[in-house]
Amino acid sequence: LLDNLENNVVQSEHYKFHWWPHTDHVAAFNVDRTDKPVKTSKSWFWDYLIGFHLLQFMYWLSTFLPSLVKYINRYHFSWLKSQPEEIIDEAEKIFTFDCLFAQYVNEWAIPREKTAYVMKRLKKWLDESGFFAHMPVEVRFVAKDDIYMSPAFGRDVCFIGIIMFRPYRKFVPHEDFWNFYEDLMFSVGGRPHWAKAHKLGSQALRKIYPNFDDFRNVCSKLDPGRLFVNDYLERTLFPPEKVMT
C-alpha cells in the first residue's frame, strides 16, 4: 500500500486508510460522490455488541495483560473489516461516526510525501519498544489551503492519528507512545490538529505556522478583551508577553 500511495490518493475524491497495529492489516476507504440509492450495512450485533461492548471489555482485560492487545487488534480486523463492502449515504453520515467510548487521541498533519517514512518509523518503534497500541492508526489525506492556522496551510498533507481507548473510562498508560509520536511528527515538519491533545506551546507553534503573528494580530483586533481566550489558547496562542520574547 505504501509503495503505491500516490496512485491510491488520487484515484478517489477522498482517500484514507486504517492500520491495525501489531498486524499487517489495513483497511482502505475510497470515497466518491454518487447518484446511487442509499445502501448501508449497520448491524447491532457486529457494530455494537462485538465492535463496542466486547471490544471495550477485551481492552479492559488488556490493562492487566497488555500483550492481549495484539490479539484483540488482529481479531477485530478479521471479524469486522476483512471483507470489502460498499456503503452509500449522505455525506455527513459517511464522514462522521460515533467513537462510542472514551479515548486518548493525538493527530498531526505532515507533508504528504513524508507519509511512508512516518508509518514505517511508527511500525518499527511499536515492534521494538514493547508498547501495545490500540487500533486503528488513521491515515487520511487533505489538500492544501490558505487558512492561516490550518494544519494544511500551503501544502498537501497527510493526517496521521493515533488512539488509546479508555475502557470503562479507566486510565490507560500512553505517554511513551505519545512522546515518540509527537517527536517524530515534529521532526518531519508536522503540525498538530487543534482539537486533539498535543504538548506544543506558542514558541514551537510560531516556528511551524508562517502566519502565526498575523493570526494573533487579527484576533487582537476582533477580540481586544480576549473574551474568547481560554487556558488552552493562552498556552498555544496568547501566553503572557514575557514568554513571547
Defining key terms:
Vanillyl_alc_oxidase_C-sub2; six-stranded antiparallel β-sheet; 245 residues; 9 helices; Vanillyl-alcohol Oxidase, Chain A, domain 4; FAD_lactone_oxidase-like; globular
Q: What's the layout of helices and strands?
A:
Elements: H1 5-10, E1 14-19, E2 26-31, H2 44-62, H3 68-80, H4 91-94, E3 103-111, H5 115-129, E4 137-142, E5 157-165, H6 175-187, E6 191-192, H7 202-208, H8 212-222, H9 231-236
Antiparallel strand pairs: 1-2, 1-4, 3-5, 3-6, 4-5
Helix pairs in contact: 2-3, 5-6
Structure commentary:
The chain has a 6-stranded antiparallel sheet. It has 9 helices and 6 strands; from the N terminus they run H-E-E-H-H-H-E-H-E-E-H-E-H-H-H. It has 2 domains: 191 residues, Alpha-Beta Plaits, CATH 3.30.70.2520; 36 residues, Vanillyl-alcohol Oxidase, Chain A, domain 4 (Orthogonal Bundle). Helix content is 38%, strand content 16%. The protein is globular and about 55 Å long.
